[in-house]
Amino acid sequence: LDWREQSYPTWTAQDTVHIAMGKALSTNLAHLSLLRALGSPDAEALASAIDAAFWTDSGYQSVIGTSLDGALTKQRDLLGNALAVIDLKSHPEALESYPFAPGGPPVFWPQQPFTPIYHNRATWPFVNAYTVIAAREAENAKVFDAAFESLVRGAAKHLSHMENLEYLS
């Protein structure tokens, strides 16, 4: 069940150290949720640090690299952006600038060339569901409608909520 070849640079398939050393938006948001559930006084400091580290003018970026390159990636993930809008209560515009295609919003943006569909070139119903929740929080009817329509269209076309669908079709 390891999909690292479809989410990370190909050279990480045999050497996962740099994946583990990086910092991911979604993982940090999961830690934030846990700290809040535990009533930790560190929760709000982490929330501020996440917002400061991952936010750019084009939205929340997915990953901060390692010692090889500590810069933010030039890639966004919809789940991270939706959870950031829900949990951080800041930058609702992150949803507005995320692209939607005819089949729905892609899980990652921009797409990785020559990479199989899984995270890449895919839309996931559960991510779209979080996007609907985030769009409601952000009071963004356009994104709400597009994400909801993607959920309904995928279910109607396939008579199920498949794990993932190709986002262009």
How far is the first residue's CA from the last residue's CA? 25 Å
Q: Any idea what the radius of gyration is?
A: 16 Å
Give the low-confidence spans. Answer: none
Helices and strands, in order, run as HEHHEEEEHHEEHHE
Helix count from the secondary structure assignment: 7
SS elements, strand count: 8
Beta content comes to 5-15%
Description:
The chain has 169 residues and is mainly alpha-helical. The protein is 46% helix and 9% strand. It has seven helices and eight strands. A two-stranded antiparallel ribbon has the order 1-4. Strands 2-3 form a two-stranded antiparallel ribbon. Strands 5-6 form a two-stranded antiparallel ribbon. A hairpin with a 2-residue loop joins β2 and β3 (59-60). α2 (25-37) packs parallel to α4, α4 runs parallel beside α6 (125-138) and α6 packs antiparallel against α7. The protein is globular.
List the helices and strands and how they pair.
Layout (H helix, E strand, L loop, with lengths): L16 H5 L1 E2 H13 L5 H12 E2 L2 E2 L2 E2 L11 E2 H11 L4 H4 L11 E2 L12 E2 L1 H14 L2 H18 L6 E2 L3
Antiparallel strand pairs: 1-4, 2-3, 5-6, 7-8
Helix pairs in contact: 2-3, 2-4, 4-6, 6-7
